[in-house]
Amino acid sequence: VQLQASGGGLVQAGDSLKLSCTASRRTASNNGLGWFRQAPGMEREFVAAFRWSGSYTYYADSVKGRFTIAADKAKNTVYLQMNSLNPEDTAVYYCAVHRGPLSTIRVGTSYNPWGQGTLVTVSS
Question: Rounded to an integer, what distance in angstroms lies between the CA atom of residue 116 and that of residue 102?
């Protein structure tokens, strides 16, 4: 499975961006797609995830109410709509395939493979 992420860019605080992540194919062990981000000097953190079964969505507290994850199952694509962006959202955003049980939806080590990352920069 290969992932292609896109949509990053430079925006101002308060602006919106929409990221997309397309998986080349979906396998039985592919439970969904998730987004993580890593800011300079910081650890990678969970942002949001979409489970194919039931179309359930999950969010980090820091983005809840501002970010929305959705999917086009026919295209194996997950979108991350990011609104009300602030400088603290600046990071490289990665999408990845979730292969673990639901209890690991926020755990990076339960994701494989990972996309190449797309940079989001929010200026104040």
Answer: 24
Tens of pLDDT, residue by residue over 32-63, are 999 999 999 999 999 999 999 889 999 999 99
Dig out the tokens for 6 from the structure: 């896109």
Q: Where are the beta strands (DSSP E) in the chain?
A: 3-6, 9-12, 17-23, 32-38, 45-51, 57-59, 67-72, 77-82, 91-98, 111-114, 118-123
Instruction: With H, G, I as helix, E, B as strand and everything else as coil, classify residue 42.
Output: coil
Q: How far apart are the first and last CA of the chain?
A: 37
Residue closest to 66 by CA, chosen among 78, 83, 80, 54: 83
For the record, the structure tokens of 12 come out as 């101002």
